[in-house]
Structures are given as C-alpha cells and as structure tokens.
C-alpha cells in the first residue's frame, strides 16, 4: 500500500523529514515526521530575509501545537540527481512499502551505511509529488530548507572511475588551501595563493590517474543540475558522498583549479567548460563574499549565466533560482506547478519587463531557440546560448536610452508586446558567413599575405588615432574592422559572391593562426611577422570575433551589418529601440494578432551590429525621426 501523506500547514512553514532506521541492513526503512522551519532559524544565514522570529511570533505560532517542539531534530538536506524517475527501489515508510527511484535509493543506502546522518530531508519523499499546491509552496522554501540544514549532503553517485582517488586529492588540496592565512579577492585579476597549494595542484596535474579521475568526477550529471546552484549556495556546511567515500567540502578546490588554470599548465584537464567548474565561481561568491546575503545577483543574470544547466522539469529552470535572486520579491514570481512551462516563461518575461530589463529580455530572446511555440520576444532559457557581446560600448540611441520610452505597454499575460522605436532601413542583401570559408584543416604555419597590408595599415591608423587603449577600444576596433574597413571594399559586388580567396576570414585567419602558435607572446611574434607589439592583442580580439558565425548583410541605403545568429533574411527591417543598446531586426508577419485591428505585427529575429549607427549617428543624420509603435508577437 502506497504511503499516504498528511497535509502540511503552510502558515507554520511545516516540512517533512525522514528518519532512517538502522535495524534491517538489507532494505531501507524509515519514518516520516513533521516539523517547522521556524524551529531551525539561526542568527546568520546566507539567505536574504532569514532573521530570527520574535518571542511573540514564536508563541503565537506554536502555542496551539506544543508537540511540534519535540520534532526539532537537526537534519541533513540531500542534494542529488533524480535521474530515471522510474520507481524500482523499495522503502518501508511507517510500515507502508513504497517504491523510489534508483538514484534516491542508492543515496539513502550509502548514507545509512557510511555515515551517522539519520534525519534527512529529500525532496522526492518529503514533498507530496502528487500535490501541485503543496509542491509549489514547498519549492518557495527550498533555499531555506537547505540553509537551515546542519549539512548538505551532495550525492555524486556510485563509486566509479577512481572517484575516491579524485575526492581524496581534492580534499587534500582543500586542506592545503585552508591551512594558511590568505585571502583571495575573486573579483580581481591579481590573486595571491599559497605556494604549497600551487605546488600540490601541479602534482595533481602531473599524475595522469588523478587528472583523469578529477575530470571524470566533474563530468558527472550532478554538476549539470540547475537545483545544485541553489542547494550548495545556500548550504552552511557541505559534504560530498560518492559510493562509500565521504569527503569534506571540495567546492573551493574546484574553484581554485579553475581560477589558477592559466598558471597551472594543463590543470584544466579539458573540463574548464563543464558546469561543475562554472558553478564553483558562483559558490565561492555565495560563501565568501561578505555582501552576498545583501546583494545577490538579479534573476535575469542568473538565468543567463546558468542557462546550460538541466532540470527534469523545464519550469524548474526558473523556480530553482528564485530564492537566491536579489529581486525575487519585487518580481513576484510564484512557483506554480499547475501552470505549464510556456506560461511560466511568459510570466517570468513579463515580470522582468516590468523591472525594466528590456535589453536583457530581447537579447536573450534572440539568443534562444523557440522550441515551445512561445512569442518571439520571450526568452527560452532552456535553449539559450549566452553570446557575451559587450553591449555597454554601444549607444545607438544616443541620449534616448530611457527604458520608459521603449515599452509602449507593459504586458501582463499577453502574447503581444508593444515597443516604441525607430525604423532604420530594410535589409536587401545577405552575405555568406565568414564561417562558410573556414578551411577544414589549417596548416602548421601561415605567413601574412600581400592582401593583409591594407588591412594592417587601417589597423595601425586606427590605433594611432585612438586616445585610450581599453577594452571598449578593442571592441570598437573589431566591429569597425570587420564591418567597415574590410567589408566595404566589396560594396560594388554582391555580398554573397565572396570567395575563399577574397573574403576577410581567410585574410584574418592567416595572421591569427601563427599568433595562436606563439600564445600571443608579443616579443616572439612581432619580430617574426614585422608587427608592432601593441598590435598583437588587437589582432587576437579580431581573430576571436571573426571565428563567430556572424552573417553579413547590406541595407537599402548601403549600410553594412553583422547578425549573430544567422537568422536575418532579405526584407527584414532594422530598428532602434530606446534603452536597447543593439539594433534589432524585425520581420513583418502581417496584421492579424490578438485583435484584428489592422496593425502590423512583427517577429523579433535577432540583434545586429550595423556599421555607422552604433554611436548615435542615426539621430545626427535624422534630426527628428518618427517614433513608431511595433507590436511583437
């Protein structure tokens, strides 16, 4: 008979805990108790707004239920991968046999066998998964549940691929890092670290077995879960359990290996882009930065940064991050599992728009694949790729960036979004992408060809005319070079007629590749190729930029642009939207929308760089442009 859950009292912030039984070693047995989160408040917590209750509040809440105090048992919160949800493992809950997933069964068996932790919070058992109302409000308290746990147990899975070797090595590195008095300001480029830790990390790198073991450990599914961010960022203490081996907190060790990878030859071990390494930067910020509990990141930034993480339920891509976001209360997004994923994405987008995150919303919508039939202006963070374009450089709308000029009407639950903006031009020609000319195999060494001399001349001229050498200058140089100085030489030809011999990609590739071989060492590269040392870093930025699969286009008035996601077509229009620091490309789809009012409707296609209007030039050439209302669907 399946275990029947008793309702929880939301007004008392009740939760369930399971108490593991040590009696029968061959099967899982436990009982479920009910308690209140208010009994586990502490003076300091990494969760914003977690302050001790007053005596009056405590008395008023528990005067009618004094038995609740008996259930104040320190508990441990389990962080694990759900995996295959098929119930295959038996567990005895208060005398009722229930089936749970293999992953949860393995975790509970290991906890009971290898630790003395017996009071556990595990979401699959402690939340009635068949009650969407309960699940919704319990999810709102997930961060508090993990914050008030005595420890968070990270279950990495069964022992395999030398996982114990990896955990021991990371644990030794953690001891080394914490055994000396040193501080690492993670926000600065110049970071000091104990020599002993660097030496130990080099030793780990030099051992193929350890290196492979750590790589395998960080490639486990555990590190790809979006819930992991909230669970580990909220934890006051953390242990990692893998098979029969329990390790102390290893997050800082992983963070150290990632942070110092540029100093430790080969220590990246080919997993620098793994979600586990990316997450450690957030964990270190959450656990060490003194302002985290007052200034955590905004939801829009967390959604973008952690878009690559997975969730069994697509709605959890949003719900899992609400509790650790700075603006979660003001956004007023309430987890509700009675709503489908499409509705959650639309409501989240509308909430962000009401907070004036117009640019980020539109940029994210352009960077995601529309897989759910949602409106074009709604981002799908499950299918989003962060482009990293430095938008702060550009000011195409000059002094017209006020966000209140952009939103014509704030959507609530509408499928349409009305925006104010200016029409720039119509796209008339689409070019081949630089990427289309990428050679399949690059030779060991290239020498600058004669065709590069004009390009280098323009490069040097631009540098000589620049007053400051900063990151903004580099970004502007890249854009002007690729779109202006190079592409305009083909303005009398059809852009799509570029060949492998006359396109900018080949020209720049010939310079970039040898620089890569020399690791961008100015002293070694410059004499060999006759370049000024100051030129080398800029050529590197150009090479990085041109490797992207941008598509060139030309407008009716011979403006040149580059679109990032290769979606634009002929007859699309380029528009400027106040507060959005990149021109947008819209596609007219007709006049029928929610109301057949005869207004034209548009689909948001993508953002683009358009040469000649990125610094307010459009308004210098058009003193009083007409502002229009664009209805996006």
TrEMBL record:
<feature type="domain" description="Heterokaryon incompatibility">
    <location>
        <begin position="75"/>
        <end position="231"/>
    </location>
</feature>
<protein>
    <submittedName>
        <fullName>Heterokaryon incompatibility protein-domain-containing protein</fullName>
    </submittedName>
</protein>
<dbReference type="Pfam" id="PF06985">
    <property type="entry name" value="HET"/>
</dbReference>
<dbReference type="InterPro" id="IPR010730">
    <property type="entry name" value="HET"/>
</dbReference>
<dbReference type="InterPro" id="IPR052895">
    <property type="entry name" value="HetReg/Transcr_Mod"/>
</dbReference>
């Amino acid at each position: 008979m399946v275990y029947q859950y008793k309702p929880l009292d939301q007004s008392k912030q009740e939760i369930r805990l399971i108490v593991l039984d040590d009696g029968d070693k061959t099967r899982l047995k436990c009982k479920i108790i009910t308690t209140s989160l208010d009994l586990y408040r502490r003076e300091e917590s990494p969760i914003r707004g977690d302050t001790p209750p007053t005596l009056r509040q405590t008395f008023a809440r528990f005067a009618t239920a004094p038995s609740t105090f008996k259930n104040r048992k320190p508990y441990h919160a389990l962080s694990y991968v759900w995996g295959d949800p098929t119930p295959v493992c038996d567990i005895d809950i208060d005398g009722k046999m229930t089936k749970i997933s293999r992953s949860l069964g393995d975790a509970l068996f290991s906890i009971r066998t290898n630790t003395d932790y017996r009071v556990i919070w595990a979401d699959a058992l402690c939340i009635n998964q068949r009650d969407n109302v309960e699940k919704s409000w319990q999810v709102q308290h997930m961060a508090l549940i993990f914050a008030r746990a005595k420890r968070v147990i990270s279950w990495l899975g069964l022992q395999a691929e030398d996982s114990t070797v990896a955990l021991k090595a990371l644990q030794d590195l953690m001891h080394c890092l914490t055994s000396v008095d040193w501080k690492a300001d993670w926000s600065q480029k110049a970071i000091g670290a104990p020599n002993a830790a660097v030496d130990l990390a080099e030793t780990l790198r030099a051992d193929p077995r350890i290196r492979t073991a750590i790589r395998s450990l960080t490639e486990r599914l555990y590190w790809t879960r979006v819930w992991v961010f909230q669970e580990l960022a909220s934890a006051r203490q953390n242990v990692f359990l893998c098979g029969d081996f329990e390790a102390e907190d290893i997050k800082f060790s992983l963070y150290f290996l990632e942070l110092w990878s540029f100093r430790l030859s080969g220590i990246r071990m080919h997993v620098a882009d793994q979600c586990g390494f990316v997450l450690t930067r957030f964990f270190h910020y959450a656990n060490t930065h003194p302002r985290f509990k007052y200034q955590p990141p905004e939801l829009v930034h967390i959604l973008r940064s952690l878009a690559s993480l997975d969730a069994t339920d697509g709605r959890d891509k949003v719900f899992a991050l609400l509790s650790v976001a700075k603006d979660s209360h003001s956004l007023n997004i309430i987890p509700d599992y009675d709503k489908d994923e499409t509705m959650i994405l639309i409501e989240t987008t509308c909430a962000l728009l009401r907070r004036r995150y117009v640019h980020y919303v539109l940029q994210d919508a352009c960077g995601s694949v529309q897989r759910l039939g949602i409106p074009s202006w709604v981002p799908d963070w499950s299918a989003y790729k962060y482009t990293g374009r430095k938008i702060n450089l550009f000011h195409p709308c000059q002094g017209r960036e006020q966000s209140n000029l952009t939103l014509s009407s704030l959507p609530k639950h509408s499928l349409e979004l009305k925006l104010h903006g200016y029409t720039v031009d119509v796209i008339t020609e689409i070019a081949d992408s630089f990427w289309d000319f990428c050679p399949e195999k690059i030779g060991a060494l290239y020498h600058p060809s004669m065709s590069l001399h004009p390009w280098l001349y323009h490069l040097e001229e631009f540098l000589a005319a620049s007053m400051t050498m900063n990151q903004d200058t580099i970004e502007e140089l890249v854009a002007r070079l690729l779109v202006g100085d190079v592409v305009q030489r083909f303005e009398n030809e059809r852009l799509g007629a570029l060949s492998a011999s006359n396109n900018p990609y080949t020209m720049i590739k010939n310079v970039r590749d040898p620089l890569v071989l020399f690791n961008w060492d100015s002293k070694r590269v410059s004499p060999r190729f006759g370049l000024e040392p100051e030129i080398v870093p800029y050529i590197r930025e150009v090479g990085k930029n041109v490797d992207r699969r941008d598509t060139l286009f030309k407008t009716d008035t011979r403006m040149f642009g580059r679109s990032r996601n290769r979606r634009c077509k002929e007859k699309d229009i380029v528009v400027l939207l106040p507060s959005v620091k990149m021109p947008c490309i819209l596609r007219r789809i007709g006049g029928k929308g929610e109301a057949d009012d005869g207004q034209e409707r548009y689909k948001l296609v993508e953002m683009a760089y358009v040469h000649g209007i990125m610094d307010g030039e459009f308004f210098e050439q058009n003193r009083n442009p007409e502002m229009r209302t664009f209805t996006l669907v």
